[in-house]
Design goal:
The protein is built from 7 helices and 4 strands. It has about 210 residues and is α/β, with parallel strands linked by helices. Strands 1-4-2-3 form a 4-stranded parallel sheet. Helix 2 crosses helix 3, helix 4 (about 105-110) crosses helix 5 and helix 6 (about 160-180) packs across helix 7. The longest helix is centred in the C-terminal third of the chain and has 21 residues, at about 160-180. It starts with 9 loop residues before the first strand and ends in a 7-residue tail after the last helix.
Amino acid sequence: IVKFKIMKQLVLIRHGQSHWNAENRFTGWVDSPLSKRGIQEAMKAGKLIKEYDVDIQITFTSFLSRAIDTLNLLLKELNKSNLKVNKTWSLNERHYGSLTGLNKEETEKKIGKSLFLKYRRSWDTAPPPIKNNDKNISLYGKLNKNIPENKTPLTESLKDTYARVIEYYESKIVNYLSNNKAIIISAHGNSLRALCKNLFKISDDN
């Protein structure tokens, strides 16, 4: 008698390179599209998933086109373009506040390495909030207009990002894992970092 153990499968993918990634800018909620390289990366991801024979059945992504397009491109490689795509602002990239749009290298030189690293990689320190008249707000993803105004942040720490990501994960995604459905989440560096902190029990300091 051959016994098969059904494995829970959760695939996490960070979107391919965007134009602002290529320019080394803090992107956050700005809807910077995939670059040519980013498109190729997304297609390659689809080929790799196909190679590992993962039968994706449920999909989740953010409100930002770079993550949505990455997901759609890899689903096309898997011949699964017909799958429903669940989109949520809860999986958006961390909001970088007043750093949005700034070049990272130039910003580090201006504010110093210590504060720069604190804003980028600490657990609970958020950059200064973005101003209401900041020109970059007009570049946010169009779907972000569906977020209730009282929930739209002006800046976020990784801790803030963690709170919204994990709330959504536990209320909307975990049940599918319990039913042994293969899931893919196409999101962003910091929203995935927050989720991995929870999944792998990573400490605040680490």
